[in-house]
User: Which sequence fits this backbone?
């Protein structure tokens, strides 16, 4: 009885694999494909979108180089000072820069509005 259950489960897995990968499509068994070509047709001037840095605009598609951080002078090694538990996590949280998502600008602004 257990062998029969294992055999049924293996056959069900093989059948699902064939169905999900489109191997059974010639016989009329295939998953529904998700396509939305109407969304692509509704876009208004997608080529006018530009990615803008948080500090300012990008000039004519040229990427701005990030500023190079100053290098610290070499120092003599110092013995580590013991810290209380949890202190490294607090220091790392204070030292980490805030995470910001890139801004997207649309030129001209009228191209960003939806058509009625």
Assistant:
């Amino acid at each position: 009885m257990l062998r029969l259950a294992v055999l049924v489960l293996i056959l069900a897995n093989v059948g699902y694999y064939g169905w999900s990968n489109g191997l059974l499509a010639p016989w009329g068994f295939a998953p529904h494909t998700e396509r939305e070509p109407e969304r692509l047709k509704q876009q208004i001037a997608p080529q006018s979108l530009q990615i803008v840095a948080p500090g300012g605009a990008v000039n004519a598609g040229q990427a701005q180089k990030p500023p190079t951080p100053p290098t610290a002078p070499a120092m003599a090694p110092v013995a580590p000072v013991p810290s209380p538990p949890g202190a490294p996590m607090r220091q790392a949280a204070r030292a980490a820069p805030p995470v910001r998502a890139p801004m997207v600008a649309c030129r001209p602004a009228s191209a960003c509005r939806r058509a009625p």
Summary: The chain has a mean pLDDT of 74.
